[in-house]
Automatic annotation (TrEMBL):
Keywords: Dioxygenase, Lyase, Oxidoreductase. GO terms for molecular function: dioxygenase activity; lyase activity. PROSITE patterns: VOC. Residues 3-120 form the VOC domain. InterPro entries: Glyas_Bleomycin-R_OHBP_Dase, Glyas_Fos-R_dOase_dom, Glyoxalase/dOase/EhpR, VOC_core. Pfam families: Glyoxalase (PF00903). It comes from Rhizobium leucaenae. This is Catechol 2,3-dioxygenase-like lactoylglutathione lyase family enzyme.
């Protein structure tokens, strides 16, 4: 069976988005070109940042139609991430709150992509 292993965000400029993700993920890109940057993640997944003007075929719409989720384990792990990311000055779209699935919050990357932190399903 084929399993997905790459999510791509369309960004204005990968060079402008790279420092944000380098700092957030604590790693250097595995691949970088003027139009595409990829970060290899520990779980075998990859995050790609593709220059929006070079995407083929061009997307039919741009906007917040999804989220990249960071599921963190451990007592108080979501709140610890919230405090860390807030201290870094990341734009908070949703303050730390309790939802049906547990504590969560959302920050935005430089292009407005939503990054949600929550606990894994139990």
């Amino acid at each position: 069976m084929t399993s997905p292993n790459l999510i791509i965000f369309y960004v204005k400029d990968p060079g402008e988005s790279t420092p944000f993700y380098r700092d957030l993920l604590g790693r250097e890109p595995a691949f970088a070109s003027p139009n595409f940057v990829a970060f290899a993640l520990d779980n075998g997944f990859n995050l790609g940042l593709w220059r929006r003007s070079n995407v083929e075929p061009q997307p039919s719409a741009i906007g917040n139609r999804g989220e990249l989720g960071f599921m963190v384990e451990g007592d108080g792990a979501v709140e610890k991430h919230y405090q860390d990311w807030k201290a870094r000055g990341l734009p908070i779209a949703q303050e730390l709150t309790m939802m049906d699935f547990g504590p969560t919050f959302v920050v935005l990357d430089p292009d407005g992509h939503r990054l949600r932190v929550c606990e894994p399903d139990k």
